[in-house]
Amino acid sequence: MTFETKKDVLDWYEKQPRTLSREFIGNIDWKAVKDYPLDEKFVPVLLYMRDVEALTDMYYEELRRTPTGKDPIIGKFMERWSGEEQTHGELLNRFLNEAGIETDDKWQTQVRRAVTNFYTVNNYLITSLTNLVGKRFTATHMTFGAIHELSTTQGYRRLADLANHPILTQILRGIIREESAHTHFYWSVARLELQNSAFTQKLARFIIKHFWTPVGSGAKPKEESDYTIATLFQGANGLNWIDRNVTQRIQILPGFDGLTKVSDKIGQIVAQHTIPDSRFQISN
Questions:
Q1: Quick one: which of 149, 131, 157 has its CA closest to 186?
Q2: What is the pLDDT of residues 265-281, one digit of tens each?
Q3: CATH classification at residue 76
């Protein structure tokens, strides 16, 4: 599905019903979570994903200070997007609790406080630089968003397949449907913005090629990010998964033909880390 204007993209997005409705959440059999084993190697992955979802409100606040975030169409999308991402984090936290992994009642506050001052200062400087470029940086913002949403969605798909936990799979499928809608918005707006000029294409490609890092990097410790990626995408199958579902999709965008940054970065991380099969499983 392609669109002619950003307003068309927003109109489509607003017609998408929430998957994680009260009814959906109410139908989750939380008491059955402990009826199925959960390999302990996936616990750090779930914690990382939970935290990244919770930190989206920080990204939302940062983007609101830029011409991209001040765009009324993008701003309206992000209001709903931010709320949905918070729900994702809360559901993952609830699953962990039901699986016997205790978390603090104020875990969201702790996650935000754990963000380094370096990350905060660095993002302030980046925001200032993007303001100098103005609206021409919107294509870069939207391309970053598309890559992050695509890779996050594929991470959830891999986790569902690898963990093979029925209740977790049910939750992740709901999250994936909402993340897929987010992906389509970001990707569609990125395509429209990139079509505006050769400059926006060259700028976006340069930034992605030289500065893209996996979602959550910087705000979360590198070792946690690397562990999550290596756990989910190790082996030829995992790397082919990223290439097919993320890299090749991004290469369709104007100005991104042949760019393999995402596959290269994920491949580098996977090559540097070996995640052994866990001998322990969390169960009753």
A1: 149
A2: 999 999 998 776 654 45
A3: 1.10.620.20
The Cα 236–Cα 118 span in angstroms is 35
Alpha helices in 55-197 (DSSP H): 56-63, 67-70, 72-98, 107-113, 117-133, 138-163, 166-194
Taking only the tens place, the pLDDT of each residue in 163-186 is: 999 999 999 999 999 999 999 999
**Which residue reads 């309206």 in tokens?**
76
- Domain count across the chain: 1
Residue at 1 is within a domain: no
The three-class DSSP label of residue 41 is helix
Q: Is the pTM higher than 0.85?
A: yes
Single-letter code of the amino acid located at 213: T
CB contact at 8 A, 77 and 149: no
**What are residue 282's phi and psi, to 5 degrees?**
-90, 120
The letter for the amino acid at 152 is: T
